[in-house]
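May I ask you for just one protein sequence along with its backbone structure tokens in two labelled lines?

_____
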Amino acid sequence: MDLYELQLSNPKLFPQFSVKDTLVLYYTCPQRDEIIQLYSKHIQILFTLSGKRIQKHGDQIWEHSTGKGELVKRCAFLQELPADYSGWDTLVFYVKDKYLRFIFEEFRSYLSLTDLPEPGKEIIETFEIDDQIRSCYASFLPYFGNNKPIPESVLENKFKELLFNIFSNPKNKHILAYILKIVDRYQTPIWEVMEGNYWYDLKMQDFANLSNRSLSTFKRDFKKHYQTTPGKWLTNRRLQRAKAFLETTDKTIGQVVYECGFENISHFSRVFKKKFNISPSAFQKQGPNK
């Protein structure tokens, strides 16, 4: 599920306004299912105002709660309700690369760009919130539900101030290092996108979005790296993951299907039997190394 498009198309459920190329939302998360699969094709800067949510990506787990800001990279992930669920009020800024570059160039001479760490591989980077940052993001809240016309320049200056305070905080050098990658037009390798997201049930266009490429460029770069088509590679990679789960865990067939990115059980059973000459249920019953 494309989180950005879902929220953009439901302004009543997700109150919002735009600042230049940035979508700003302030809402109480309506999630009711225990776990949902989502993906974001744009970078998010996120502040939890109350409550909590859990996000999972592979073996990594993050808990969104008050006290820290979070930069969520382009990625697919699972979002889970915590055991002590009591709502989740969040303020989110979706920022596109082009606008980030524009703002960064305005800030460049005021930022310390020496001794930056290597950009992290995690899909979510937490960052420090000080009084200035807190004051900046809190200043957006009164504008939600306010029908009074507001010059876009007022909101843009607020957003620029927020970003500058995040980037210039000495404890947020890891965030600055990641932003610098974007500014320098670093393109995420195809293998990194695929190996980090293949087990999610995403369309080809979704993978292209995560890699920040057009669909045609994504397919061309994929073929150049893997020497096969994305569809064939995904099926094979997901089958290998599913086979390992059936050999080494007690997961049900339904759980394996969900956690390996297959459309449904019948589709999974068909391609599994074609690949391994045995049905998933029979393979699971025979156990490992038999």
Q: What stands out?
A: The longest strand covers residues 43-51.
